Amino acid sequence: MKLAALGLLIACGGCSLYFGDADPSRRDDRDDRDDRDSPPPGQGPVKGPPPPGGPPPGPDGPCPKDPLPQPPPDPVPGSCSGPQVTVFGVYETRSDHEFGVHPVGEGHVTIGKPGVHRLVLSSYEPTSWHVTLAPGATVEAVYLYGYHAQTVDLPGVPLVVRTYEQGGGNACGYSYPYNGGGCDTNEVLALAAADAGPIHAFHGCYHASEWTLHADDTATSDCTYEQNDFVNTCTPSSDWEPATFTTHDEPSCTGARYVRYDAHYQTWIGAIQCGSADQYKLYMSEQRDAAFLQIADFAGHGQDHCELVDPSFTIPNEDDITSGGCTACSVADLIDVIDVPVYARANFGERFERVQARYWADLTTSRYACGVSIP
Asked: Domain check: are 206 and 316 in the same one?
């Protein structure tokens, strides 16, 4: 026991002790690993899920006083504009691999959140990735990281491949914070941020083959051992900013488009200029990158909607848009929208509800003037 302790102490000081007749450069304890394909330093395979605290001290792990690898700080929340970068990381999608035998596993990712996405898919073992998109979700680019070969079935989508076998470097990671057990998550996150931009979310597991990203940014999977997650929330801007949002219906105006986040109603407001900056058609959406819907009124035809443009707007008389003192406020022709989804309410200050527009019940207008310009 004393000799073992002394050996460990000296090894941690930069030296090592050896007792025995065999060549000390040969390591019989490597024979129980599931891979001997000589991966790059720091990216060796792991036999089963590592312990939560990282590998035990000894020849294959850190010295007792060595600090465990620390995770990088989570990316600083940015604006909510632009594509969402999500990282999915696993060590394997199937467990029947062994020395020299690496069958290709299947990884299935469903994107249930509307908007534009950049996907980072990482696995140590060879994986064929399959991506399913819910309505309103699109993928702008895919980044494949790993040691063994990775593929994905999204034809026409720009693809970056960084794996050891395919000659593009390598990175893999499934734990968060990184547990020091191999497949360095810190490297994956750093590489993903450099390639794809600020990371919105990471979801990882040692063994998983099914992932679903939900609209609230949570993810579910068939993870067999402790799923690891983090999500960075963005900070929406309350100021108008140029945008190229889409509308569910053919727009009545064709001018410049802008969006802003309304913190009071917790929704996005879209505006399309109608010939000038002080006249516009207003829209609403729960997600910035989803289709925007018309805003309807079942006690008028939009007179109270100017509060979405001007927070100081009031309307004591719901039938008179100028009753709160905005003499420049007006709405144009009445439009009876039918059988399409809209956001609607009856009175000023009420919450908006998403409903299916009904005949002569949910009314709107072709143009608003709210006494202020956009932007």
From this structure: no
Q: Which residues contact 300 (CB under 8 A, 6 or more apart)?
A: 318, 319, 363
- Dist CA 124 CA 155 (whole Å): 23
Which residues is 139 bridged to in the sheet?
117
* The dihedral sign for the CA sequence 156, 213, 356, 248: negative
- Residue range 122-150, pLDDT digits in tens: 999 999 999 999 988 899 999 999 999 99
CA distance 334 to 339: 16
Measured between alpha carbons, how far is 204 from 192 in angstroms, rounded to an integer? 14
Percentage of residues in the chain having pLDDT higher than 90: 62
183 phi-psi bin (left φ>0, alpha ψ -120 to 50, beta other) = left
Q: What is the dihedral of CA 198, 203, 208, 213, to 10 degrees?
A: -90
Does 218 lie in the same domain as 131?
yes
Domain boundary among 206, 231, 256: 231
What integer is the mean pLDDT of 310-329? 95
Q: Distance (Å, rounded) from C-alpha 317 to C-alpha 303?
A: 10
DSSP sequence for 283-332: EEESSTTSPBEEEEESSSSSGGGGGGT-TT---SSTT-TTTTS-TTEEE-
CA distance linking residue 282 with residue 368, whole number of Å? 7
Q: What is the pLDDT of residue 206?
A: 95
Which pairing describes strands 363-365 and 334-336: parallel, antiparallel, or unpaired? antiparallel
Among 205, 231, 257, the domain boundary falls at 231
Residues 152 and 255 in one domain: no
Spatial distance between the Cα atoms of 40 and 270, rounded to a whole number of angstroms: 50
| Domain span including residue 358 | 241-370
- Report CA 72 to chain centroid distance, whole Å: 18
List of residues 6+ apart from 193 with CB closer than 8 A: 75, 85, 199
Token pair in block for residue 371: 């006494």
Do 194 and 213 fall within a single domain?
yes
Report the DSSP pairing between strands 115-123 and 137-146.
parallel
Nearest alpha-carbon partner for 173 in 128, 212, 121: 121
Pair (203, 268) in one structural domain = no
